[in-house]
Amino acid sequence: SMSRKATCADNAPMENFFGILKQEMYYGEKLVSYEELKSRIEEYIYWYNHERIKEKLAGLSPVEYRTQSSQS
């Protein structure tokens, strides 16, 4: 469902993610080709979901946390 104009709360998680992506992956680097950027972003998203540890998730990556939550 599309949000009404001026309802930005639903965008907050993605805005936050892109901010983190820019800080952690791309800050201050030279521009690269579209293909290179696409592959770097795909690698980053994999790393973010499978390896990046989050304090809010009890020191687990999002995938580890989801797996543990679904098993309990």
List the helices and strands and how they pair.
Blueprint: H1 12-26, H2 34-50, H3 62-71
Number of strands: 0
Q: N-to-C terminal Cα separation, in Å?
A: 32 Å
Helix content: 55-70%
Largest sheet: none
Overview of the molecule:
- With 72 residues, the protein is an all-alpha fold.
- It has a domain of 43 residues.
- Helices cover 58% and strands 0% of the residues.
- It has three helices and no strands.
- The mean pLDDT is 80.
What's the short version?
The chain contains 3 helices and no strands. By secondary structure, the chain is mainly α.
Features:
72 residues, mainly alpha, 3 helices, 58% helix, extended
